Amino acid sequence: MSVVLEQIFQVGFLAAIIRIATPLAFATLGEMFSERAGVLNLGIEGIMLLSAMTGFTATSLSGSLWLGVLAAVLTGMLMGALHALFTVVLGLSQHVCGIGVTLFSSGLAYFLYRLIFGQQSVPPSIKGFQTLPIPVLSDIPVLGPAVFNQFALVYMAILAIPLAAFVLYRTPWGLSVRMVGENPRAADSAGVSVIATRFQAVILGGALMGLAGAFLSMAQFNAFTFGVVSGRGWVAIALVVFGRWDPWRSAGAALLFAFVDALQLRMQASGLGHIPYEAFLMLPFIFTIVAMAFMSRNAVAPSALLKPFRREER
Amino acid sequence: MFRLEVRTATPAWFNLALPLLAIGATLVLCSGLIALAGAGVLESYGVMFTASLGDSYAITETLVRAAPMIFTGLAVAVAFRAKFWNIGAEGQLLAGAVASCFVGAVPMPGPLAMLSMAVAGAAAGAAIALIPATLRVKFKVDDVVSSLLLNSVIYYALMALIEGPWKDSFSGYPISPPIEDSANFPVLIEGTRLHLGVLMALIAAPLIWFLIARTTLGFKIRVTGENPEAARYGGINVQRVLLSTALLSGALAGLAGVGEVGGVHFQVMSDISPGYGYSGIVVAMLARLNPLGVVPAAIFLAAVMTGAEAMSRATGVPAFLSDVIQGTALLAMLVALLFTAYRIRRVGAA
Lengths: 314, 350
Known about the structure:
heterodimer; A: mainly alpha; B: mainly alpha
């Protein structure tokens, strides 16, 4: 145990937490915006995968990392729009549509990847994002190298948290989002377009999911593989509940999950006893399920979540 | 302008026409991807059809692949009927496979071995499905998320088994020891792989239909799904119905794993299911949650999967097309379902 404790308070460990938390923070914030407007987006796993693929491909073909990020974000927005078309405009079951979007986008990601790159024994890779030390701040002991010597996308995630909170709580659009998620009928009476607001929120959510995908294939792994997302999207959905649909709490939940994940990586590396490494891989998922059991009782979801809105009905 | 208008009655022929419409739309939409891959659309679909349904052997191969999807499709259909959102059929299938492999490795007379495998597999699947249902009933945990997360947990547990205690000490491959020869499901037609599990799946569908349509439990499941408030007023213990549904649904998904171990692989490996649990959702929706419709829907998806591999070899179109077809079919069916509840009315713009 002392070995584990020793490793927790290392710069490398802190940096690893931040790095694991980054895609989760993007994804969780994205899902949060969608759910705050009343739309559960189970397409998240597939959207992240497809974005990871398009981001990687765009960078691989153009040589520009930011073009890749742009491609990933646009992909996320497009798939978000698809989900919104089905759930918001047509009012279909959010659960099943989300699974449909995930199946469709994962299939499409693998199909197009194979079409573009063919079958290769060694998967192609790109020169991904490099760490970008921020002057002065990166000189702070421990915290500096862990937090301020990171990829540009990490800084974007850190900035995205207060920005998301500001947009949600302090702007008229954020108010509309919260209204259509809580009481769409009242929002409609107040002259807010429920359909338009939900559409925008789901698309914004998709953009953030796209950033999450881009981080995975362009900063963390620098390649597109089958396991590039491996359940992180589903975890993000749980983190939204855990974070009680609040940007700050959601980001906190992402950090907490990243801590558990980084810990299991360390425990794997230290070869603790004869425990198979898969037991550690399970840990974050079990942790999330248990955490949800504790949190869900008091968690208050947006009232109109999962409820389609049709003006002419009732 | 067009407007959606609530239908008062749904014409009967819709039930048959809608899935066909959705499948047709799917094939048209996906033909764009075939063209993108530089292959002939009709030629590619032709290869898919011949390879999956063209001769009697191809048909048996398709049926072998359809069997697990019939079971997972039934599992999802039963669960969704009660609005228990079981997205965990994949994990329940894996648990069923592992449990039946454990039991099948014990020397026993054939019939007893197969029966024990089925019971163990169904029980394992049911036990796993009970977790999200209990979490929902007791702790209000969203069943979609918990059943999804459980899939990962069970997958890693399976991996831990086959890379740990079960690992083949000779070859070093991460595969379980094989089940006893006596536990191998008998082949129904000489020279094919059509095994007992396929028959079990084909029998399960009408049985589940009967259960849903004609029994008290089936009635409770339907009422709970359609209107939980009314069910409660009618004296139905909604929570207990949810738990029963979960047990039934999980057992069916577990049986999908039993069939794969007993009739196809005779052991457990990491890729024992290429996502049959998720395909079950597509199957159930294409079948409009009708257990009898699950059979043709599963056969369609199985044909797509079998055919896509042959098409890939013949034309070079990536076999992942079958995954895209699945996703598209699900979305197309959802849109098609809209027309059962609504009609499109042109609203005079004058």
